[in-house]
Design goal:
Layout lengths: L1 H27 L6 H25 L16 H5 L17 E5 L1 H6 L8 H14 L11 H27 L4 H13 L14 H25 L8 H11 L2 H16 L40 H8 L3 H16 L7 H18 L11 H14 L5 E9 L9 H7 L5 E3 L5 H15 L4 E7 L2 E5 L1 E8 L5 H5 L14 E4 L4 E2 L6 E2 L3 E13 L8 E4 H10 L5 E6 L2
Parallel strand pairs: 2-3
Antiparallel strand pairs: 1-6, 2-12, 4-5, 4-12, 6-10, 7-10, 8-9, 10-11
Helix pairs in contact: 5-6, 5-14, 6-13, 6-14, 7-8, 8-10
Length: 557
């Protein structure tokens, strides 16, 4: 083990620094007297460049990658302990207890994110951690091995939509796609573009409608000009037109029917502006573009479908009843041809993102992470690693499998969160999260706002609620949950308060609130362990949207 550790140190720390230095020495050939100064200047330049790069990545919203610094953790103690006090150096830090846990597998298995592909990079790191592989192991996964798996998932979805649509339409879609892409290129846009170069669903639909009507109008003019006395009868002509019609003819007919019904006004429930969720294209982060469709452990389907099954309130039942009545009135509306067409264009745009030189996993949600791991399992004969929901907003997702069935497989049970949870419930949730963090052959993957990253460590300590430590300020410790709950009180000796009787004084215990600080170590940008996120903030993030979750990546027995 010591030899392996030494080899990894030289490979990960020494070699990236010394190899360029040796090449530079060979080129410059400094004299013996100047050799030491030359090396010192070289090391200073490296340190300055690393600091500049780290600062740019921390402050810029346009950087979509990890820095070039080594993945190895140089100072584990500084990474894990709060900067304002040293609980391991003195018993007089702030409270009664302090604890910290870290995952060596996660710290050794995470891999860099060279582009906005955090879902792929984090999934690769999670696989390595669950399997117990260091990132330098020949069997380890990285963004390079995971991106093709994500692409396969999206390609399969795009093909499914396309095949169904072409069957119902009666014509292939490729000719339309080519013209749409040409028009977008003229506008310096693309289906997979970002920011100003992005093509929204609404804009794509306007282009589709414009192109189809232009082609149909041109054909009608040509048809009128070429009519002759020997033309077929009107019935034969209609039959021939139907048999030979392509995507433009078919969509032209649908647009004409729509125009006759509502004067070409699009219904707001069929075509609405759908962005990339709350993806920030400037950062290149991802997770919400596809509605976060997710396969559960024992069932296949979208998260939206699972959530629909969970809506059992009277209000939801009434809403579904109204929808069913509307569908009965209009049986032709069962095929939402506009929505499905735009869904296909959206998938094509997603394929452009994932297959780009700087790959982006923005179109993927939790379903992509779980599906990619499943595809990786299919290619591995000696591994069975799965992803499952561990913590998130309370819903019936957790009931897709019984707790006993999950436990038999070694999969932790779902921890549902609610805004009504009291402090005792929050404490139980934290303890359950810790138990899952310590589970063998597993690691935790956090889908936080606009990002995916591993959870590398957990820590907690007790402090007075009026204590404002450097860590509490810099790390965003949120007191909103704990300070409103009943905290443990202690008697502070030496405090005197008059009894109001005027006949003297007596000691009255002054009560003092305490609160628990609970934090997880993850990353807000890139994959490097760098951000301690307070548990109350993590809970609030997951409560704000059902797609934000903590996933458990587990190697089955």
């Amino acid at each position: 083990p010591k030899r392996e550790t030494d080899e990894r140190y030289f490979r990960e720390i020494v070699d990236p620094v010394m190899r360029p230095l040796m090449c530079l020495l060979q080129k410059e050939k400094p004299s013996k007297t100047n050799l030491a100064l030359f090396i010192i200047d070289y090391m200073k330049d490296i340190e300055i460049n690393n600091q500049i790069e780290e600062t740019k990545i921390a402050n810029s919203s346009e950087i979509e990658m990890d820095s070039k610094s080594s993945e190895a953790i140089v100072d584990l103690k500084s990474l894990l302990l709060p900067p304002s006090f040293q609980p391991l150096s003195s018993l007089e830090f702030v409270g009664d207890h302090f604890s910290v846990s870290y995952s060596r597998r996660a710290l050794e298995g995470w891999v860099k994110q060279p582009s906005p592909c955090c879902a792929a990079a984090s999934a690769g790191g999670a696989w390595n951690a669950a399997m117990g592989f260091s990132r330098t192991d020949s069997r380890a996964q990285s963004h390079l091995t995971m991106i093709p798996l994500f692409s396969q998932l999206l390609q399969s979805q795009a093909d499914t939509i396309k095949n169904r649509y072409e069957r119902l339409l009666g014509a292939p879609l490729e000719p339309l796609l080519m013209l749409v892409m040409e028009r977008l290129a003229e506008e310096n846009r693309s289906l997979g573009g970002k920011n100003e170069a992005a093509a929204s669903r609404k804009h794509v639909f306007k282009l589709v409608r414009l192109i189809v009507l232009e082609v149909v109008e041109a054909r009608n003019k040509e048809k009128d000009a070429n009519q002759s006395a020997n033309a077929l009868s009107s019935e034969d002509d209609d039959l021939k037109s139907f048999m030979n019609g392509d995507v433009f003819d078919r969509l032209g007919e649908l647009f004409e029917q729509e125009r006759a019904k509502s004067d070409a006004q699009l219904s707001s429930d069929e075509i609405e502006e759908e962005g990339e969720g709350d993806e920030e294209e400037g950062e290149g982060e991802e997770g919400e573009g596809e509605g976060n469709r997710i396969d559960s452990v024992d069932s296949v389907g979208s998260e939206d479908e699972v959530l629909d099954k969970a809506k059992t309130s009277k209000k939801s039942v009434k809403a579904k009843t109204v929808k069913k009545k509307k569908k009965k009135k209009s049986s032709k509306s069962s095929w939402q041809w506009k929505k499905e067409l735009l869904d296909w264009f959206h998938k094509v745009g997603g394929l452009e993102k994932i297959n780009a030189a700087k790959a982006s996993t923005a179109p993927f949600g939790n379903w992509g992470v779980i599906g990619a791991l499943r595809n990786l399992n299919d290619a591995q004969s000696d591994a069975d690693v799965i992803g499952s929901f561990l913590m998130g907003k309370k819903s019936k997702i957790a009931t897709t499998s019984s707790p006993s069935a999950l436990a038999a497989k070694g999969i932790p049970c779902y921890i549902g969160l609610s805004r009504d949870d009291d402090e005792r419930t929050v404490t139980a949730q934290w303890n359950s999260l810790r138990a899952a963090f310590h589970a063998p052959d597993s690691c935790l993957l956090f889908h936080l706002k606009n990002h995916y990253a591993l959870i590398f460590a957990m820590r907690e300590w007790e402090e007075p609620d009026d204590y404002t430590s450097e860590s509490s300020q810099e790390m965003g410790v949120n007191k909103s949950i704990e300070e409103n709950e009943a905290a443990e009180e202690e008697e502070v000796s030496g405090c005197v308060k008059e009894d109001g009787g005027g006949s003297g004084q007596r000691r009255v215990p002054v009560k003092r609130r305490h609160r628990m600080v609970r934090q997880v170590l993850t990353s807000r940008r890139g994959q490097r362990p760098s951000a301690w996120v307070d548990f109350s903030e993590a809970r609030q993030t997951m409560l704000n949207w059902e797609g934000y979750k903590i996933l458990a990546i587990t190697r089955l027995n």
